[in-house]
Amino acid sequence: MVTNARQVRQNKIINYLQSEGFVKTLDLVEMLRYSEATIKRDLVDLENKELIRRTRGGAMIIDKGKIDIPYLMKINRFNNDKKMVMLAKIAQKLLKDDMVIFIDSSSTALHLVDVLTKYDGLQIITNGLITASLLSEYTTARVNIVGGSIVPKRFTINGSKALHDITTYYADITFVSCRGYDFTLGATETTEGEAYIKQAFRKQSKEVALIITSEKFNHRYMRQSLSNHDIDYIITDKNLSKDEKNILVRNNIRFMSESEQ
After folding, report:
1. Measured between alpha carbons, how far is 258 from 261 in angstroms, rounded to an integer?
2. I need a labelling partner for 16 at 20 to 30 A (CA). Which of 123, 141, 219, 261 fits?
3. What CATH class has 72-260?
4. What superkingdom heads the lineage (predicted)?
5. Residues 3, 73: Cα–Cα separation, whole Å
6. pLDDT per residue over 114-124, tens digit each?
7. Fold of 2-67
8. What does pTM read for this prediction?
9. Residue 92: enclosing H or E segment and its boundaries?
10. d(CA 32, CA 36)
11. DSSP code for 130
12. What phi and psi, each to the nearest 5 degrees, are found at residue 195?
């Protein structure tokens, strides 16, 4: 219960800072109804996770484009994310019985679990520990998890062994997300390990579907995971301009959104 309460508090702090940019410690004390000492410990913890920067008497958000909300915070609220549930239903159009599927370890991909329960004969390969656990519990799919090194606090596996394991499979389709998408560069990540995993999925898959929310567009990070030529579908809630749609058409990418159904 203590851990859950701390996660709830820290999630509220992050959500407030994403909206306002800065907050005073005493305002958090009043807002959350916890002691000043408890709030300060939360701020130290969030700063250690590189989510915020503490200032004299308060805290400020780190660049919103670079923020990575802790994985368990995302998991705790994923069932209530109507936007992601909608994207998963759009992705369902690409599914059928008896498919072999790669799914990455992103919290975005977790929303596919519910729609995957509707299909039989699936074999699913993932590098996500929680993803594999939920798929095993709620679907009838045969679930395989790649070997390798676990990334601390992210419940994801990468490394040379994971890359080798991926080469032993071939999938009908891959579902992945990304940290940022640029219409020129494609999909990008902040870490080399995540980028390499998605590149490996691409090489061993017939098709790739990139599931991304609107705020990830027009951001680029250090590591390219997928070029535009690597992507077959983009599933998003973003309303694209005519020029943006034309870029996707030129790269043979099918745009899928609620408005395009």
Report:
1. 5
2. 219
3. alpha beta
4. Bacteria
5. 11
6. 899 999 999 99
7. Arc Repressor Mutant, subunit A (1.10.10)
8. 0.72
9. none
10. 10
11. H
12. -65, -45
Question: How far are the Cα atoms of 57, 103, 116, 166 from residue 157, in angstroms, in the given order?
Answer: 38, 12, 22, 12
Sheet bearing 180-182, strands edge to edge: 180-182, 186-189, 223-226
User: Is the four-CA dihedral 24, 26, 27, 29 of positive or negative sign?
Assistant: positive
Residue type, 135: L
DSSP state of 128: B
**Interatomic CA distance for residues 186 and 151, integer angstroms:** 24
Pair 115, 89: CB distance under 8 Å: yes
User: 96-133: per-residue pLDDT in tens?
Assistant: 999 999 999 988 888 898 899 999 999 999 999 988 98
Diameter over CA atoms, the chain: 58
Q: Is 59 helix (H, G, I), strand (E, B) or coil?
A: strand
Regions of the chain with pLDDT less than 70: 1-3, 63-80, 153, 260-261
| Amino acid 14: pLDDT | 87
The helix (run of H) or strand (run of E) holding residue 117 is none
* One-letter amino acid for residue 66 of the chain: K
Is the sign of the CA dihedral 76, 65, 229, 227 positive or negative? negative
